[in-house]
Amino acid sequence: MGLRNIIVTMKVVPKIEELEFDPETKTIKRGAAGNEINPADKNALELALRIKDRYGGRVIVVSMGPPFWEPYLKLAIAMGADDAILVSDRALAGSDTLPTTLTLSKAIEKIGDYDIILCGEESSDGGTGQVPSGIAEWLDIPHVTFISDVMDVSDDKKAKVKRTIKGGHEVVEVTLPFLAAVELGCNTPRFPDFRRKRWAEREFQLTVWSAADLGLSPDEVGLKGSATTVVDLEEVKPPTRLKKKYTGSAEELADKLAELLKSIM
Amino acid sequence: MGGWKGIWVFIEQDDGVIEESSLEVLSRARVLAEERGEEVTAVLLGEAVAGEAAKLGRHGAHRVILVEDPILKYYTSDPYSRIMARLIEERRPDSLILSATRNGRDLAGRLAVKFRTGLIAHVVSLDYDDEGLLMGKVPGFGGNIMAVVKCVKGRPQMATVTPGIFDIKEFEGEAVVEKVDSGLDPEQVKTRVVDREIKELIDISKSERVVIAGMGTGGRMELVNQLAELIGADIGVTRPLADMGLAPRDIQVGSTGVILKGSLAIVLGASGAPHFVSGIKDMGTVISINKDPEAPIYEYSDHYFVGDIFEILPLLLKKLREG
Ligand SMILES: Cc1cc2nc3c(=O)[nH]c(=O)nc-3n(C[C@H](O)[C@H](O)[C@H](O)COP(=O)(O)OP(=O)(O)OC[C@H]3O[C@@H](n4cnc5c(N)ncnc54)[C@H](O)[C@@H]3O)c2cc1C
Ligand SMILES: Nc1ncnc2c1ncn2[C@@H]1O[C@H](COP(=O)(O)O)[C@@H](O)[C@H]1O
Questions:
Q1: What distance in Å separates the CA atoms of residue B8 and residue B93, rounded to the nearest whole number?
Q2: What digits encode the pLDDT tens for the residues A71-114?
Q3: Contact criterion met (CB below 8 Å) for B103 and B92
Q4: Ligand 1 pocket, residue B309 CB under 6 Å
Q5: Cis ω on the peptide bond leading into residue A177 (within 30° of 0)?
Q6: I want to staple B47 with a disulfide (CB 3.0 to 4.6 A). Which of B10, B73, B133, B303 is the partner?
Q7: Which residues contact B14 (CB under 8 A, 6 or more apart)?
Q8: Torsion over CA of A7, A11, A17 and A22, rounded to 10 degrees?
Q9: Are B7-188 and B204-322 the same fold in CATH?
């Protein structure tokens, strides 16, 4: 069977090891940190490409974020995505899950003709995995979260997906079109093809849509459209540890460790 | 029009077994409800769970809404979200609180959009402010930063609570159980479980001692297992080992796994990434072995042994066995 569009939602995140928090101004200094494609979204893209290999379809990546995300979308193209769309608009700044899911669902509707939508299970920069099921609700299609594979898509418009649950996994049957959130680390994302990468960087034309292109009014999105608000940010100080360092031969270290274990147990 | 009143707690079950962290949420909800002079309603969906419904009063429910249907034996999003949406529309709770398990998060995201309402996800504290707005603390960026978030729009106000944050409490009195029809047409259901494979679950969230294997072990667990057995510890792993299928996801430690609470963690060959260390920050003592003298895990360790685990562990095991 030939699938229609397979849409992957993708976000760019700061590398959290490199973030700094300024306790005085209570802001996160993102400037110092490098960025990357949200790790789980790479797994979603990899799964989409594998589905395409088996069942056909076009893989289209969609992001809602600032213009500087463009190179990362091109990286997704280099990995094998057929097209990429960036929804970018100042009016969208400060959006929580409600306007984010609204905006992404409008973009997905505008792309249209979809059978499968894949998201990452959560964003590594403090997302909580609430975006995927929210998008599915706006689109009024079924969803399954924490999936590690799409095992089968049958002609009667049903798919079997593998979902991680407490203690193991289950197989969920879901009707098309559907949305699934893909588990972080469930596959190994392919490296971008060198020649495709060069093409993506030089010739690929990214489609950029504004909020108005999606028929969204400024009241529906951004801070105004949000249903939650952050009233304070606190730095979590790691507990003070003794930080005793032991060096020496393996023999000496084993001795010290054995003594230590006996003394504290 | 009825006003939006009372606190609802979604009680998760799987094949008739109640999810413990739902009872933690229920207990917290009862405390909050008493402060506000409101009632707590537990909502339980399942196949044949009337027996379990009757017990919910003990953990804080004033009332229980019980929906039984064979399709509800296991959680899937479509039937569960449809029934919950109908109940909320009809009865209008002020707040709906769920445990932030996989299923709780799956359901919460969908319902929050359905009602165009605020959802505070994965909170580690839960309160109301003076205006009756739900308020919770949400860890971000691998647990380094805590955001205090409020629901400012929509009803029901919603939150999902990180498992293990609140204690399960006992309360006096019995809950009034009300049975409600599922109203489901099985033909219409768009998600269903057709197969599953589960092993007996290892829960390390309350283990006193845990030996944690990182990538430095290369996934070779013999020495790790022996050490754990000798000192009466359970075993945990870092995320990559679970990703590679070398260990079950249930024993993965960290912000996307289990947050440990015991007295001793021995960390073998883990670098100390932010997502990982938030899983050991509440452990009494942390001992690490790492061949890198400067790995970030040093900052999070009480005792840091610079060396190769494959050289140190055999000698250590011998010494411990000799007594
Ligand atoms: C959204 C998101 C969520 C995540 N959630 C989690 C989570 O919940 N839990 C988690 O663990 N990770 C999580 N991660 C992954 C995390 O960022 C790190 O990649 C991971 O913790 C690294 O695992 P590690 O320390 O075992 O491996 P590495 O970083 O590869 O470290 C291996 C360490 O072993 C040492 N070593 C190697 N050989 C030896 C030897 N023979 N003897 C002694 N030492 C040796 C090395 O010096 C090194 O320090 C998450 C990532 C993302 C993006
Ligand atoms: N701004 C965004 N643009 C595109 N996709 C997003 C965006 N925010 C969230 N997502 C998708 O939703 C998933 C879960 O995000 P979150 O709910 O924020 O943890 C991510 O892995 C992405 O696939």
A1: 6
A2: 999 999 999 999 999 999 999 999 999 999 999 999 999 999 99
A3: no
A4: yes
A5: yes
A6: B73
A7: A165, A166, B74, B75
A8: -160
A9: yes
Q: Is the pLDDT of residue B323 over 80?
A: no
Average pLDDT in the A200-217 region?
97
Which residues on B lie below 8 Å from A16 (Cβ)? 141-142, 144, 274-275
Q: Which CATH architecture has domain A5-225?
A: 3-Layer(aba) Sandwich (3.40)
Residue type (1 letter), B246: L
Beta bridge partners of B211: B235, B266
Q: How far is B9 from chain A (nearest CA, A)?
A: 18
A vs B, Cβ pairs < 8 A, gives 272
Q: Does domain B7-188 have CATH number 3.75.10.10?
A: no
Residues of B in contact with A97 (CB under 8 A): 109, 112-113, 119, 121
Pairing mode, strands B303-306 and A244-246: parallel
Assess whether the C-beta atom of A88 lies below 6 angstroms from ligand 2: no
CATH superfamily, with its number, for domain B204-322 = TPP-binding domain (3.40.50.1220)
Domain boundaries, chain B: 7-188, 204-322
Question: Searching chain A, which residue's CA lies closest to the CA of residue B250?
Answer: A167
Q: Which residues of B touch A142 (CB under 8 A)?
A: 77-78, 190-191
Q: Give the tens place of pLDDT for each residue, B175-224.
A: 999 999 999 999 999 999 999 999 887 889 989 999 999 999 999 999 99
